[in-house]
Write a structure and sequence with these properties.
The protein is of the alpha+beta class. The chain folds into 2 domains: about 5-80, no CATH class; about 100-270, no CATH class. It contains 8 helices and 13 strands. A hairpin with a 2-residue loop joins strand 2 (about 115) and strand 3 (about 120-125). Helix 1 (about 5-15) packs across helix 2 (about 20-30).
Length: about 280
C-alpha cells in the first residue's frame, strides 16, 4: 500500500485537525490558489521534483512511459501513462476504475439515500445534484476509491454500457484524506464530474471523479450522451493532488459484487482493472 510521506500527513492533519489549521485552510482550497499551484507544477521549474518524489514514494519509473529527454514538468510525470501489460482488466461486469484505496459503504435511507464516510453522512441527492437520479440508488452501494499523490492517476471506465447522462459540478478543492471528512463534507463541496452508464446486467451505474486539494484537476476525455463506455478503456486523468472516484451501484446489483470487508472506515488496496 502506498502512503503519504510523514510531512504530508502532518500537514494535512494540522490543516484539518486543528482550529488554526482550518482557519489557514480557507484560502488554500480556493480555485485561485489551485490555479497558481497548477501553473508552477506544469512549468519546467518543477521538473526536478519528479525523480525525488518517485524515490520517496516507491514508484518504479520502469513501469511507465518516459518521454524522450525525461519529464518536462512535475505534472507531466504525475499524469504519466503506464506501459502496456502492467495492468490486467479482469472478467466481470465491474472492475476498479483506478489504483487506490477502496472504501465500501452501503447507501441507506428511504426518501433521502445517503452513505457515510468517517463521521460525515453524504446525501446522494446533494452529491449528484439530482434527487430523482439519487432515488435509483437507495439500498445500493457506494464504492469510494481514494487516490493518494503516490498512486497512478489515470483512470478507466469501471464497466461497459451506454452513457446515459453526464454532469459537471463546480466546487472547491479539499483534501480527500480520511481525517478531512471529520470537519468538511468533502464530496459535496469539491469539484466533481460524473457519468451515468447504462449497463445491461447491473442497470444504471454512476462513475464520478472528485478533485482534491492543490490542483486536483479532472481531465476527462471527450464523450457525449449515447456514446459507448468500454470497461478498462481510459476515461481520463487527475492532475496533481490526491483525488477520489465514487462509483454508485443500485440495490439489485450489490449482491453481484464481492468487495471483502465493508466497514465504512476500512480501506482496501486495489489496482486498476481488478475485479470488484
Amino acid at each position: 500500500m502506498m502512503k503519504r510521506t510523514k510531512s504530508e500527513s502532518k500537514s494535512i492533519d494540522f490543516l484539518y485537525g486543528t482550529a488554526l489549521g482550518r482557519f489557514l485552510l480557507r484560502p488554500l482550497v480556493s480555485p485561485a490558489v489551485s490555479k497558481a499551484a497548477a501553473g508552477f507544477l506544469s512549468s519546467p521549474l518543477s521538473a526536478g521534483i519528479a525523480v525525488s518524489f518517485a524515490e520517496k514514494n516507491g514508484i518504479s519509473l520502469a513501469d511507465y512511459e518516459m518521454p524522450e529527454g525525461g519529464y518536462r514538468s512535475f505534472n507531466e510525470f504525475f499524469t504519466r501513462k503506464i506501459k502496456e501489460g502492467r495492468r490486467e482488466i479482469c472478467e466481470g461486469e465491474i472492475v476498479a476504475p483506478s489504483d487506490g484505496l477502496l472504501t465500501v459503504s452501503p447507501i441507506e435511507g428511504g426518501g433521502v439515500p445517503e452513505f457515510r464516510i468517517k463521521n460525515t453522512v453524504y446525501s446522494i441527492g446533494t452529491l449528484l445534484r439530482d434527487s430523482e437520479l439519487a432515488e435509483e440508488f437507495a439500498g445500493g452501494t457506494a464504492l469510494i476509491f481514494r487516490l493518494t499523490p503516490a498512486h497512478y492517476h489515470r483512470y478507466s471506465y469501471c464497466c461497459s454500457g451506454r452513457i446515459k447522462a453526464k454532469r459537471r459540478v463546480e466546487g472547491i478543492l479539499h483534501s480527500v484524506k480520511p481525517v478531512c471528512h471529520d470537519n468538511f463534507p468533502v464530496f459535496i463541496e469539491n469539484s466533481r464530474e460524473y457519468v451515468v452508464i447504462e449497463n445491461g446486467v447491473l442497470g444504471d451505474i454512476v462513475q464520478m471523479e472528485v478533485g482534491a486539494l492543490l490542483v486536483g484537476k479532472i481531465s476527462n476525455h471527450p464523450c457525449k450522451i449515447g456514446d459507448s463506455a468500454v470497461k478498462g478503456t481510459e476515461k481520463g486523468y487527475f492532475e496533481y493532488g490526491g483525488s477520489s472516484i465514487v462509483v454508485l451501484v443500485r440495490a439489485g446489483a450489490k449482491n453481484m459484487i464481492k468487495t471483502g470487508p465493508t466497514a465504512p472506515d476500512f480501506e482496501i488496496p486495489v489496482k486498476l482493472g481488478e475485479k470488484i
